[in-house]
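[job 4471] stage=fold_predict status=RUNNING
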Amino acid sequence: MEYTPEDKKKANLDNVAKDILYKTLDKNIFSKIKTCATAKDIWEKLTQIFKGNDETKENKLTVSQQKYESIKMREGENMAELDERFSVVVIEFTSLGKEYSNKELALKVMRALPKEWDVKTMAMRESKDLNKLDLHDLFANLKAYEFELETKM
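[job 4471] inference complete, writing structure tokens
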């Protein structure tokens, strides 16, 4: 059987893609995909390995949801640390297909703050359109306020 130029091009691209995938995987993962014939097969196997089946995804989503619902600012934690923890949770559930609106995220962050932040969060709720306030801007505003409080002490 002779390959057409198009077949050769596809085979070459597949080999390049497989080579890239092989070079990025550690030995444990490589052993799970080494029998895959094409780059597409490798990608599908990796997706299955890292995302899991529907039941696994549902369990991960449930755990992620619980983390989201229970997040609170810890005693002694600063705004940058809360920002980091909250962002990790948001990225986790977003990767599982769950998304919240800007308003829902902003309100959740505000509820996660201790009582001494009530005046600030009330002012933000009244003065800002929470539907248009993204997490980055929200945390920038809260960090600026935190800095202002720290300089007054």
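[job 4471] summary: The chain has a mean pLDDT of 92.
[job 4471] exit 0
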